[in-house]
């Protein structure tokens, strides 16, 4: 990237992003129930365990560790953390509400007052420091009881339970939260249904029908949430949230170009098309036919989806993705749940995620050209090993370089005419990695003293990137 300066909108929403299950801890406090994240084992093998059929959603402490149970103890330390966010100058803080703090089992008639009161305190503390919350309603935190008793999002009944949940939080926080998102990285269910859809695929089971039926239930639930938000909090904005990774063809072979297009449409656009355009995209008709998928769509579902579309698109961007029809002679790349073949033009992070800031400019242009609604980069960051020096400092120049290049790419996209609302850097404070359950995969501007075995003081300290990001926000992106 060049050293040019960029003009970001005056009301640009600078901040950081987290998820309840990755920071809060207190997994049994305040009458909270068990959610999916609470039963996910820690360690580099987490994703492989989750991809195996028959995951039982039970805790087995003799076999695994569960770092999400304590996480970084935001549940007790939120005031300290919010003060640090305010010191950096955050305009917004993206967080999620743990569904099981509000409805511990998921199917109760009345919400849990202790859970509601906790988020009252968090929102009040944010507003005390002039920070607007950006709240994800469901961020890989489905109640385990809904998984075991109903089959997760396979079940139409879960739509009713979700609607009850959103009604409760909208009515409670209508004066405190003006930015909402429905399902975190909803399209991740195509690859990792356990975290997003609340079930594992069994060996004897056709994997497509339950997955796409679950998606349909989520689309209905999302539309009901949009409807409720617009009715209860008319001055609020509610968006969808997707993983977005531009899909490049490995070369100019038309077969590879077509394959990349098919992968991009299914992963990047299918879920967004339904939630933003309000209808199933035409390309899915062929996909459903060729894969013998017949959805149970109730009367009124499609009209509901058409009428209640989201106000903006929130998305995570960590990398692009390169695809080749025949992968037998190519090395695979690692990535955020999904991955393709290695791109020879890109370097990778400590965890093998390819680094492509230009891909963010491409992503913003592709999304805005297709949808013409405001965009919000709600996740972007570098997971890396950080070394603490003898004086306690962390010189994370690699993180600064990564973020600088990606923020510059956003500046370029704004010059291209993209309507970009804001940017919340992922893991603004070190947290438990969603993909591996590790603490050593650090993203934050704030270091948290805890290791992969759960040892440490949990003390917070500022990294070099903390001061850099403070300057970025203070200069509204001009000082990179």
TrEMBL record:
<dbReference type="InterPro" id="IPR033132">
    <property type="entry name" value="GH_1_N_CS"/>
</dbReference>
<comment type="similarity">
    <text>Belongs to the glycosyl hydrolase 1 family.</text>
</comment>
<dbReference type="GO" id="GO:0005829">
    <property type="term" value="C:cytosol"/>
</dbReference>
<keyword id="KW-0378">Hydrolase</keyword>
<dbReference type="InterPro" id="IPR018120">
    <property type="entry name" value="Glyco_hydro_1_AS"/>
</dbReference>
<dbReference type="GO" id="GO:0016052">
    <property type="term" value="P:carbohydrate catabolic process"/>
</dbReference>
<dbReference type="InterPro" id="IPR001360">
    <property type="entry name" value="Glyco_hydro_1"/>
</dbReference>
<dbReference type="GO" id="GO:0008706">
    <property type="term" value="F:6-phospho-beta-glucosidase activity"/>
</dbReference>
<dbReference type="InterPro" id="IPR017853">
    <property type="entry name" value="GH"/>
</dbReference>
<dbReference type="Pfam" id="PF00232">
    <property type="entry name" value="Glyco_hydro_1"/>
</dbReference>
<keyword id="KW-0326">Glycosidase</keyword>
<protein>
    <submittedName>
        <fullName>6-phospho-beta-glucosidase</fullName>
        <ecNumber>3.2.1.86</ecNumber>
    </submittedName>
</protein>
<feature type="active site" description="Nucleophile">
    <location>
        <position position="379"/>
    </location>
</feature>
């Amino acid at each position: 990237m060049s050293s040019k300066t960029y003009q970001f909108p005056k009301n640009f929403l600078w901040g950081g992003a987290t998820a309840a299950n990755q920071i809060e801890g207190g997994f049994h406090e305040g009458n909270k129930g068990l959610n999916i994240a609470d039963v996910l084992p820690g360690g580099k093998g987490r994703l492989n365990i989750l991809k195996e059929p028959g995951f039982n959603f039970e805790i087995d402490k003799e076999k695994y560790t569960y770092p999400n149970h304590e996480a970084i103890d935001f549940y007790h330390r939120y005031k300290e953390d919010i003060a640090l966010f305010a010191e950096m100058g955050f305009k917004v803080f993206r967080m999620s509400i743990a569904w099981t703090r509000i409805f511990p089992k998921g199917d109760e008639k009345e919400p849990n007052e202790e859970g509601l009161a906790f988020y009252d305190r968090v929102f009040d503390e944010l507003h005390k420091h002039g920070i607007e919350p950006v709240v994800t309603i469901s961020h890989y935190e489905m109640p385990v009881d809904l998984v075991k008793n109903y089959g997760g999002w396979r079940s139409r009944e879960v739509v009713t339970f979700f609607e009850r949940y959103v009604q409760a939080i909208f009515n409670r926080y209508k004066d405190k939260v003006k930015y909402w998102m429905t399902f975190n990285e909803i399209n991740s269910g195509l690859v990792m249904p356990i975290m997003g859809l609340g079930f594992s695929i069994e060996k004897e089971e056709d994997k497509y029908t339950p997955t796409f039926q679950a998606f349909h239930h989520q689309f209905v639930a999302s539309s009901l949430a949009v409807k409720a938000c617009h009715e209860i909090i008319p001055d609020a904005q509610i968006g969808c949230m997707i993983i977005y990774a531009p899909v490049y063809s490995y070369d100019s072979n038309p077969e590879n170009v077509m394959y990349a297009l098919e992968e991009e449409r299914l992963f990047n656009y299918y879920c967004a098309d339904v939630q933003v355009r309000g209808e199933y995209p035409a390309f899915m008709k062929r996909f459903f036919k060729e894969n013998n998928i017949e959805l149970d769509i109730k009367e009124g579902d499609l009209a509901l989806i058409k009428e209640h579309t989201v106000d903006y698109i929130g998305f995570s961007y960590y990398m692009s993705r390169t695809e080749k029809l025949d992968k037998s002679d190519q090395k695979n790349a690692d990535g955020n749940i999904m991955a393709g073949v290695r791109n020879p033009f890109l370097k990778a992070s400590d965890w093998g995620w390819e680094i492509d800031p230009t891909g963010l400019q491409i992503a913003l242009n592709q999304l805005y050209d297709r949808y013409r609604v405001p965009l919000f980069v709600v996740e972007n960051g570098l997971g890396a090993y950080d070394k603490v020096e003898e004086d306690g400092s962390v010189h994370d120049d690699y993180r600064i370089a990564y973020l600088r290049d990606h923020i510059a790419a956003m500046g370029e996209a704004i010059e291209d005419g993209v309507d970009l609302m804001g940017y919340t850097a992922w893991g603004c404070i070190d947290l438990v990695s969603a993909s591996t359950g590790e603490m050593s995969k650090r993203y934050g501007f704030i270091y948290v003293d805890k290791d992969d075995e759960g040892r440490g003081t949990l003390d917070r300290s500022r990294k070099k990137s903390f001061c850099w990001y403070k300057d970025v926000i203070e200069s509204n992106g001009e000082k990179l």
